[in-house]
Amino acid sequence: MKNYNNCSVEDLVLDAYFRKWSLGELPSKDTFWEKWLEKYPEKTQLIEDAKSLVIALKVKNTDMFSDEEINDGIQNILVETQHKYPGLKIISFKWLRIAASIAIIFGLSWWMTSKNVLNITNIDTISSIEQKATHTNHGKQSIIFELADGSKITLEPHSELRYGNEFGKEKREVFLTGGAFFDVAKDTQRPFLVYTGKLVTKVIGTSFRIQAYEKDNNISVDVRSGKVTVYRQDSKSKNSKSLSTEIVLIPNQKAVFEKEQELLVKTLVDKPIRLNTIPENASLVFSETKVSDIFSRLEGIYGVKIGFDKDVFNKCTVTASFQTETLYEKLALICEIIQAKYEIVDGEIMIYGKGC
Length: 356
Known about the structure:
Elements: H1 9-13, H2 16-22, H3 32-39, H4 44-57, H5 67-84, H6 95-115, H7 123-128, E1 131-137, E2 143-146, E3 152-155, E4 159-164, E5 172-183, E6 192-196, E7 199-203, E8 207-212, E9 218-225, E10 228-232, E11 246-249, E12 253-258, E13 263-268, E14 284-290, H8 291-302, E15 306-307, E16 317-322, H9 327-338, E17 340-345, E18 348-353
Parallel strand pairs: 5-6, 15-18
Antiparallel strand pairs: 1-4, 2-3, 3-5, 4-5, 5-8, 6-7, 7-10, 8-9, 9-12, 10-11, 12-13, 14-16, 17-18
Helix pairs in contact: 4-6, 5-6
């Protein structure tokens, strides 16, 4: 393994292994860089600066070019930029703030035109040329801020949200790394789009939470209110001739994108909340109540579809009192009483059993 102890920002940017880690392309079991940072915490700023530049450049290797040719391309970007703008001391700048404006606008455009070594295909990278505003949370507590359209963002620790200066004028696009809760202002003419790697979340006006940390194997989107559409970014390509895979989510539903298998599935949130005016700790008391009526009541409270065979469970009744139990705890107790079981299938709850 290469010794990275004396590497500079530039050395790391030119290192193929470091670039793959920065872009989340290494296998989940490869934790070399995480362990390296634990061993050398004083290198944190160096790693963050280099990683920010890699993400800003976001070059994608093609079958036509080797890592050496890609490295040469990046090196020429930096050299040519300094040649054209000798007054700029690139290494002394903060990489995150100038990567898009210097390395991409001046260097990358020239190098792509003359050498055709770098190939930008990701919508995140294309849009990064326009991105000026960045909210980064390095602290231990979430931070709350408001965007120009009135949308409120709660940005979780170790997370970053980026968007262009033109946000809200013609389009509403943001790019998230990490976790955030979105309370989006309604605008039927301009959908709100959140890009997280290969996953895109599209809404008009609603509230939802996204977990998209690079170290995690999955990206998840939890819906609190309204309706959310989630799809893979490449499936929405203008050149795609196949039908796109879209998932429509309603409150208490969740989409999970498995990075390795690139699989997008619909399920329920880990802890469904009550959607009506009934307080979370309000009691639910049933006395010899038909189980069909109980399921109907729970559907209304949580907004979650509960499917079951009405003929099979027609004679089942339940006497029980609920207060602080979660939806799943309520279902577990009910199923125990009527000798049934439940499963979550495509964002709905299915009850199976022989009946009473």
